[in-house]
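Follow-up to my post from last week.
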Amino acid sequence: MNAPAKIDHNLVKPSPADQLWTLAKSDMAAVDAIILERMDSPIGMIPDLAQHLVGAGGKRLRPLLTVSCAQMCGYEGGDHHKLAAAVEFIHSATLLHDDVVDESDLRRGRKAANLIWGNSASILVGDFLFARSFNLMVETGSLEALDILSTASSVIAEGEVQQLASLRDITITEQIYMDVIGSKTAALFAAATEVAGVISARSDAEREALRTYGQKLGLAFQLVDDALDYGGFESALGKSVGDDFREGKLTLPVIRTIAAADEAELKFWQRVIVDHDQQDVDFEKAVSLIRKAGALKSTLDLARNYAAEARRALEIFPESEWRSTLQDLADYVVDRIS
Amino acid sequence: MNAPAKIDHNLVKPSPADQLWTLAKSDMAAVDAIILERMDSPIGMIPDLAQHLVGAGGKRLRPLLTVSCAQMCGYEGGDHHKLAAAVEFIHSATLLHDDVVDESDLRRGRKAANLIWGNSASILVGDFLFARSFNLMVETGSLEALDILSTASSVIAEGEVQQLASLRDITITEQIYMDVIGSKTAALFAAATEVAGVISARSDAEREALRTYGQKLGLAFQLVDDALDYGGFESALGKSVGDDFREGKLTLPVIRTIAAADEAELKFWQRVIVDHDQQDVDFEKAVSLIRKAGALKSTLDLARNYAAEARRALEIFPESEWRSTLQDLADYVVDRIS
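User reply:
Got it. Predicted complex:
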């Protein structure tokens, strides 16, 4: 009798993101139903445009975090679905506005909505989704959740404005960059996880732990995203590579590369970022300078540190499949590309 | 001895808007203080831009309505100031986004913010003010006020999208136009007055009366605004005349003029609105056609009817200086130009 063929389980093992989706399947179906219902409107352009963006799916990472953290907390009501949908609406609204601000071509692998319906429609439908997100929060009756998510929303806008003010400025420090990603990205992750603790009526320490988990996960996520913009592949990422470079957006890989640049290299960065004088070959040159400086690797190392902090933050909770999968997700956010 | 010179008191009598401002002076000072405090941010572009718009003053009509209605209801707390500031922030956020959508040149008699700081900054600072408005509402602890204002915010966005979808369409009906102004303008007036009744814990009938007052006043206000765009003077209005015409925005004066147009006139409207082929002289031609059709007068008559409905709605409240001034304001909104 022959031994059975060896199976490499690593090849078929689902990612922590997939595992979380499987665990939260019925919750996420409920969230999706709310999303579809609440983006409806008699004004046809609204559901059309919202469907184009929200219906494209994406990772739904933020609402997944809200429902998963609520489950880890043993929450037994139904408000986590509404809050998760509210979180996704806030995220979708910022994406619609970002596409206008950034003049993006692709979003979630599709043509950006503003290129189909125009900038005006993207601005106004973003406003609609944002308002609807507050309707949903009001229905939960949780003033604390409303406070956390409205504060996160203003912080996101601050981060976006700070990023805008820093465009094409090669003197930007790492601290400013960390402030920007802490505001524009990590604040919503932190709010998405903290509100789960709020509706579950957990202790202040546990709420803080959830918030820390979301915050650090969000930082890791954005650092990886910014690294991918210089090292990923368009098809894998669902957005164009080199967007940040073309827009003159200073991210950590470039900030660290510029910090180590010699005079000729500085002149290159001056020309392509500050003077915004770019040729086709310049992006490749930028990538090679970034690799030479080891700045992609050091960016990913920093992301890995934040992921480890996120993992540790959840240790305050008793062991469970939810907890371990959320912890694994933190590492996966970084390891998906490295 | 000569008789004293006759004084025409009509010439010096303050308008109802001025009277309401005088009555509500200390309240409005408190509202202004909150507005200034809450539009602050370490990201300098935010207070700069917000100050340009909010600091330009404008009529502050919506927050004035909130505090005046609260006073008429005998409200004794301090939440009306926060709600009034929240209402002004929602209004300011929509103005910033409208300027990008409409490509306006002037706002409140100043250069529109998007022409100074760019469209991106206007979009993001609008988002910031919108989020801050919800922060303020949360602080009042009134879930009902939050519900009313978040619902109004989504209705405003729906109205703006509907208006966008109706641009350059000369088949637009009066009903669609009334839907649009009911949503984009009257919804916030109605919310601004209703929340005053909510925090004052008035009966459902009184809340409904306040809502009706705001709604009808808002309709009258927008009808007059749309008439002014074809009949006012730029200096008096603080915005450019002919904006709606140039943007191909169908408002009641034009809808009624087109309904009465002969074949040659229809061709004119087809060219200037649908084909958007406009010469300098076309605006004057449009104004003369509108006057010939009596459409400015009939628009103002309709506004006068809504103002009368607004006046009547407040009769449920006991007589007071607040009530009578709010009632006079309704007529004044129309009479300021006719």
